[in-house]
Amino acid sequence: MRKGIVAVSLASVVIAWLVIPPGMMPTIASDRPADPEDTRARHAALARAKVFVDAPTERRETPVDEVECRFLDTPVSGTTAKFDCTLGDGARIRVKYGWSDEIHAEVAATHLLAALGFGADDVSMARRVRCHGCPRWPMLTRQAAARLHLDKFLRERIDYDRHTDFEWVSVEQRGRINEMKFGDQEGWSWNELSVIDPSAGGATRAEVDAFRLLAMFLNHWDNKAANQRLVCQSPKCDHPLAMIQDVGSTFGPSKVNLRAWNEMPFWADATSCTISMKDLPYEGSTFQDVSVSEEGRRLLASRLLQLTRPQLTALFTNARFDDVDGWVAAFGRRVDAIARRPPCPSTT
Fold it and tell me: Which domains does the chain have, with CATH numbers?
């Protein structure tokens, strides 16, 4: 009888796998209004925020050969298959697997952000991850179990003596960034960057404009507030870092689309140095049309021009992009659109 119950339950999970695609689990929207105190505290922190890191950290540039870890049964969301696991020293990592272009976009974009001095997650490609206790399809299994209220049933049957190998996946180091929390409010929106106040110790207008230009350079169209965050750079957190949390939807306008990225006009209005994401998915989401300053244009241009062709070739090669030469050429054309143009008009 017990075998029959187990068989029926597992069959239900399999059925759920077939009808529930990754990232499509139902969520319950909260109608609770934002706490005014949380909102004030978040805006005060954003006013003091920086956009460039105080002290760049060393990160691995080349793909990892092999990683071995233990499955961690934690909730995950989004549309790209992923799971969490722990290394031998207890460190937590997030593994994204499958055939999503987001995997490659995120590796390339985080490495570019870091190279330019912006905040970025620590993400690298790995030739193989051997996960002890992992089901063959971890995210589908967990989503199906949640839908059918079988979480405890499956958790009790994790077998750490068995392993599943995942080849050519991305590995993100987790738990190394101290994110600021403000109740239920997540991250920040691009239309809130005007809150940053240099007189409060926050980034300058030029630095904020360079950040905006970089978002446009990448075509970071999935820019809802939850995909950005404020993190502490020091124990006192006097000047938190405003950073992009999720850069998987980049190099598009979709994800990793060379032709579209190459042909997408950079300036909505070159004369006024106006950038816009209205022609990207979600019509720009939280990114409002803005005219950037000449100082911001020069700042980002100077940093982009320091990147060498070998560096760019390594960036796209290590992220496993196809047609690396084509991507390097397109990258150069987008740099030229910023650097090889007349000065931007004065802005107020």
Answer: 178-339 (1.10.1070)
Integer Rg of the chain from CA: 22
More confident residue, 253 or 292: 292
The amino acid at 287: F
As a whole number of angstroms, the distance between CA 318 and CA 60 comes to 11
Phi–psi pair at 128, nearest 5 degrees: -155, 140
Q: Which of 144, 146, 150 is nearest to 5 (CA)?
A: 150
pTM value is 0.88
- Sign for the CA dihedral angle at 42, 45, 49, 53 comes to negative
Query: Cα–Cα–Cα angle for 119, 125, 127, nearest 5°?
Result: 165
Round to whole Å and give the CA distance between 62 and 64. 7
Structure tokens at 67: 């990683």
| Whole-number Å distance between alpha carbons of 170 and 94 | 8
pLDDT in tens, 210-232: 999 999 999 999 999 999 999 99
User: The tokens of 146 are what?
Assistant: 């949640």
